[in-house]
Design brief:
The protein has one domain (8-132): Response regulator (Rossmann fold), CATH 3.40.50. It is 45% helix and 20% strand. The chain has five helices and five strands. Strands 2-1-3-4-5 form a five-stranded parallel β-sheet, sandwiched between helices. Strand 4, helix 4 (98-107) and strand 5 form a beta-alpha-beta unit. The radius of gyration is 14 Å and the shape is globular. The mean pLDDT is 86.
């Protein structure tokens, strides 16, 4: 039976546009109207989209290693804003060191290493959103 609830809004922040594009296409192909995908190719763009958005994302997938403003800096700015601090954040990175993983799991709601398959990503998103309820 198809879930008739409103689509989940996923914001992905990653300076690799091809990463965002491939996840967007895979989400659309596999899950259709169950998810609305919003992408930002920088931390500044993420914060601008959050500021201008009429409807906040249900979850943010945040790359840690980006130029100009790192994922950690974006995370701090999101958590400092009372209107945004409740948005769950999943860190996504190519870093494979234990320090990044431990910090990501401690501060964020989950931590994923690139590359990630779409089914695993959706499982993690749903797990985080179900915990939030």
């Amino acid at each position: 039976m198809k879930d008739t609830s409103k689509p989940k809004r996923i914001m992905m922040v990653d300076d690799k546009k091809d990463q965002c594009s491939s996840i967007s296409i895979a989400l659309n192909d596999k899950y259709g109207d169950d998810y609305i995908f919003i992408s930002a190719d920088s931390g500044k763009k993420c914060l601008l989209l959050l500021k201008e958005s009429e409807e906040l994302p249900d979850i943010i997938i945040l790359d840690l290693m980006m130029p100009e403003m790192s994922g950690w800096e974006v995370f701090d700015k999101i958590r400092d804003n009372p209107d945004w601090r409740q948005i769950p954040i999943i860190f996504l990175t190519a870093r494979t060191d234990r320090i990044a993983e431990t910090a990501g799991e401690f501060f964020g709601n989950d931590f994923l290493q690139k590359p990630i398959g779409i089914e695993d990503l959706i499982k993690r998103i749903d797990k985080v959103l179900n915990k939030k309820k």
